[in-house]
Every structure is written in structure tokens, then in C-alpha cells.
């Protein structure tokens, strides 16, 4: 990409960072494929994002500078890794994990004081994401604190574009995971029967997965779990607090929660963007883009495209279900979607079943998260 290419927008401007959803809505109208030095070619329209997702030949996932399995791979290299990973998110595995997930959700809801202001992100959303990720992987509670620190530090370094800090933070994360691999290898046949142990014993193309490959897989899962699940919970609770009629309906009809959750997260995306790189010259949204150029797919804009959803803020799960890109599309559709849906459903079920009302506190006002995060960095509510 030429450094002299003129910028169409500044994704790190205060105007964008202060209200990402509104800014991306505006860009979708003004410049649906926009260039910047920070996010390269940003793609905002549903039609264009869908085209990129469904054409992995022209738009490669190999957009990372470090090993990223399977996120930064394309078929055929991607295929055997994807097959391994999908096996951890089958209906049978989700059914087996459900009692543990429900227990964690119920315990966390029970811990919250009723009638008092609650800073939801620090006291509820992030602790749930940490506890549930460690439980799913079979990791000890002692990892909650270092993983929480890693999440905060990684976000700050990414926003600042501090590559040295990002590299150091990655090394620290890798160290935590490699220690869990050592524990299981040392235990041999006595190792716990958990996801981490099973990854240690996996084979790819006739050989064992390397530690670097396992760490890469786990890093991708953990980023998705800690960042996106926590963001999703903040978005869901905020939406229900400001839409009390829907809150009441879902208490009375919890079977509607799965569709409601997906639709709320369409309206306010928990994951802002994803990357691709062109393998050949393409034209997208009226812009000519050379081979080897990086693209940033703005989920938060594509899932609010008026051309597909009409008024993007209208809650209509049935109408919008088939066009919702919450978990992506194409060969790289999120393999962990069944786990995310299970976790969010069970926690919201428990929260609604064990409260009469969730209200938003006027002070302090909700503080929106800044790129690359979404949702809220701070959100004070009251559980009654």
C-alpha cells in the first residue's frame, strides 16, 4: 500500500472514537470503501463485506504478521486446522459444557447486590468472560487476574498502535498458555480430560500440533472470549435497561432470548472489525484496489446497512435473522459461535430470572468503548 495515498477519513479521530457506531453509519453513506493509514481500506456496506467474506480467493485471510491459526489461513492450508477446531464446538460438546456454564452464570448473578449501583463491566461482564474461558479450557482460577490484565494491556497497545508493546504482551500471554501445556505433558495419562489436554494430543497432517500452533489457536479463542463476550454482555444489559418492555417480554418468554440476543448484537456490534488482504486487483464499492492491499471489514457498519435492514435501530429478529453477519459468513464463519450463543443465553436467562427490573443509572453516564473494542468501557446499572 502506498503511504502517499490520500486518506478519506481518520478512524482515530475523537469524533469516531467517541461514538463508533454513529461514525461508521455516517461513513457507510459518505464513503462506503474508505482509505486511511491506520485501517487501510475500510469496508462499510453489507453487500461489499458479504462479497469479501464469500470470496476467499480474491480476499485472503492471511493478513496477520504472526502465526494465527486458523484465522490467518486460507484453504487448503486452513481446512485441516478448521476441522480440528470445529470438533470442540459440536452440539455434544456444548451440551456437556452447559451445566458448568449455567453454574458459573447463576453464581455470578447471585453475587450481585440488589438495589445498589453496579458497574457492570468490571463487576459482572469481564469476570464472567474470565471465569467461563478458564472453565472451558480447564485452566485454574489463578489465571483470572493475569488474563484480565492481558486483556486491558492488549487493548491499550492496539489502540496506540504500539507494536513493541503488543509483541511483549503476546509473549506474556504465550507464557501463561505454555505453562498449562507443560502441566499436562508432565501429568501424562493423569492429565485432566479437558480442552487444553485434548489440544496437546491433537495431530495435524500426521504429526502432533506444535506448542506454537496450540498457543495460536488458544490465543484466538481467548481474544474472542474475553473481549467479545464481555462487550456483548454490556451491550445486552444496556439495551434491555433502556427497553423495559422487551426486558419484561424476555422474562416472560425466555425461549425468545437466542434470537433477541443476536438481533441486539446486530444493532450494536460487539466486534468492530476484521481484516483481509487482496490477492489480485479488485474493484470494491467503486474503488480500484491493487493486489496486496489490506482491508478492514467493519462489521459494526455492515450489520446496520439500511439497504438490507431498513432502519438499523428497529428491533426485528425475524426479519433480520438471515442477513445478520454477527458471526461472519463463508469459510471463515466463527467456529465458536455455538459456545458464544450458549454462554450469552445462559447468563441472560439467569440475570432475567433472578431480577424484577434492570435500570440504567443516569450518573455516571455510560462510557463507550474505543476502538478496537466495542460496547462500553463503563456501564452503571441497578439490579432490582
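-> sequence recovered:
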Amino acid at each position: 500500500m502506498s503511504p502517499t495515498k490520500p486518506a478519506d477519513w481518520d478512524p482515530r479521530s475523537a469524533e469516531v472514537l467517541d461514538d463508533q457506531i454513529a461514525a461508521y453509519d455516517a461513513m457507510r453513506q459518505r464513503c462506503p470503501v474508505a482509505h486511511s493509514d491506520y485501517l487501510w481500506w475500510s469496508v462499510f456496506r453489507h453487500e461489499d463485506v458479504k462479497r469479501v467474506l464469500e470470496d476467499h480467493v480474491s480476499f485472503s485471510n492471511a493478513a496477520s504478521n504472526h502465526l494465527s491459526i486458523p484465522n490467518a489461513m486460507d484453504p487448503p492450508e486452513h481446512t485441516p486446522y478448521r476441522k480440528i477446531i470445529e470438533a470442540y464446538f459440536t452440539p455434544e460438546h456444548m451440551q456437556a459444557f452447559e451445566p458448568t456454564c449455567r453454574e458459573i452464570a447463576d453464581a455470578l448473578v447471585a453475587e450481585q447486590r440488589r438495589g445498589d449501583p453496579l458497574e457492570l463491566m468490571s463487576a459482572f461482564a469481564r469476570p464472567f468472560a474470565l471465569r467461563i474461558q478458564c472453565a472451558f479450557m480447564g485452566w485454574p482460577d489463578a489465571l483470572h487476574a493475569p488474563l484480565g490484565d492481558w486483556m486491558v494491556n492488549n487493548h491499550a497497545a492496539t489502540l496506540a498502535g504500539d507494536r513493541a508493546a503488543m509483541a511483549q504482551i503476546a509473549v506474556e500471554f504465550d507464557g501463561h498458555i505454555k505453562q498449562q501445556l507443560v502441566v499436562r505433558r508432565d501429568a501424562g495419562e493423569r492429565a485432566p480430560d479437558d480442552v487444553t489436554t485434548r489440544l496437546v494430543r491433537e495431530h495435524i497432517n500426521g504429526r502432533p500440533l506444535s506448542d506454537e500452533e496450540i498457543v495460536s489457536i488458544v490465543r484466538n479463542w481467548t481474544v474472542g472470549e474475553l473481549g467479545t463476550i464481555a462487550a456483548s454482555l454490556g451491550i445486552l444489559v444496556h439495551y434491555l435497561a433502556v427497553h423495559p418492555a422487551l426486558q419484561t417480554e424476555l422474562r416472560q418468554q425466555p425461549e425468545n432470548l437466542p434470537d433477541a440476543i443476536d438481533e441486539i448484537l446486530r444493532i450494536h456490534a460487539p466486534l468492530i472489525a476484521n481484516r483481509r488482504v487482496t490477492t489480485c486487483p479488485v474493484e470494491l464499492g467503486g474503488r480500484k484496489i491493487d493486489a496486496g492491499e489490506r482491508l478492514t471489514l467493519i462489521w459494526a457498519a455492515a450489520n446496520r446497512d439500511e439497504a438490507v435492514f431498513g432502519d438499523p435501530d428497529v428491533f426485528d429478529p425475524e426479519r433480520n435473522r438471515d442477513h445478520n453477519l454477527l458471526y461472519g459468513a463463508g469459510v471463515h464463519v466463527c467456529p465458536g459461535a455455538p459456545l458464544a450463543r450458549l454462554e450469552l443465553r445462559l447468563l441472560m436467562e439467569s440475570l432475567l430470572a433472578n431480577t424484577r427490573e434492570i435500570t440504567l443509572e443516569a450518573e455516571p453516564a455510560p462510557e463507550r468503548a474505543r476502538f478496537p473494542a466495542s460496547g462500553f468501557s463503563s456501564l452503571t446499572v441497578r439490579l432490582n
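The two ends are 54 Å apart (CA to CA).
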